[in-house]
Specification:
Layout lengths: L1 H8 L5 E6 L20 H13 L4 E6 L39 E5 L16 H7 L4 E7 L1 H14 L3 E10 L7 H11 L3 E3 L3
Parallel strand pairs: 1-2, 1-4, 2-3, 4-5, 5-6
């Protein structure tokens, strides 16, 4: 499966997989559940296997907030407390097959700074360049926030970006936020990949 999917994606040297915030708090039963978030786990596992089979780099970003983070409603932000460092909710989604070689990128670690992008005050860009990565395949949560901002920053840093359309879900706090986020990512030069 991994090799055939890799062929379908046209994987080559210089490609990397970035899985954004596939954490328990965003899944059903979490503190900030996203509709359909549990449906991304199976496709993400397929992509993980495809990249692992070809020895290509895999990155996982995670919200890793201190208590009282500025994005929390209790601190004047817009979200309920979520993905607090060391809590169960900050852990990876059950059933996600993370290889031991995956690079973990923690973001949102400063109590006073919101950080949706995997590039925000992290070493992600430096690590990607060190591995001679040119193209990112991005999936995870959520389409209209952390996936969107990570893809836009990838483009700003000069990376090609492919959105894994079957492995993303949106908060949709406003009507059609997810649809608009995809259109915006494409407008900034990203490609949308949909598996039939």
């Amino acid at each position: 499966m991994g090799k055939s999917l890799g062929k379908h994606l046209g994987l080559r040297d210089g490609d990397a997989l970035v899985i954004v915030d596939a954490q328990r708090d965003f899944l059903p039963g979490g503190s900030l559940p996203v509709d359909g978030a549990d449906e991304v786990i199976a496709p993400l596992n397929s992509y993980l296997e495809a990249f692992r089979a070809r020895g290509l780099p895999i990155f996982l970003t995670r919200d890793w907030h201190p208590p009282g983070h500025c994005s929390f409603q209790s601190a004047g932000g817009r979200w309920p407390p979520h993905c607090i460092q060391g809590t169960t909710g900050a852990g990876w989604a059950a059933g996600l097959h993370i290889p031991p070689t995956a690079h973990i990128i923690s973001k949102g670690t400063d109590r006073n700074v919101e950080a949706y992008s995997g590039f925000a005050d992290t070493a992600l860009a430096k690590l990607l360049r060190g591995l001679h990565v040119q193209r990112l395949f991005v999936g995870g949560l959520t389409t209209d926030h952390c996936v969107h901002d990570t893809v836009l920053d990838a483009r700003l840093h000069g990376f090609d970006a492919v959105i894994l359309g079957d492995a993303i879900r949106a908060v949709d706090a406003g009507p059609d936020d997810g649809t608009r986020a995809i259109a915006d990512m494409i407008a900034h030069g990203a490609q949308l990949h949909m598996r039939s």
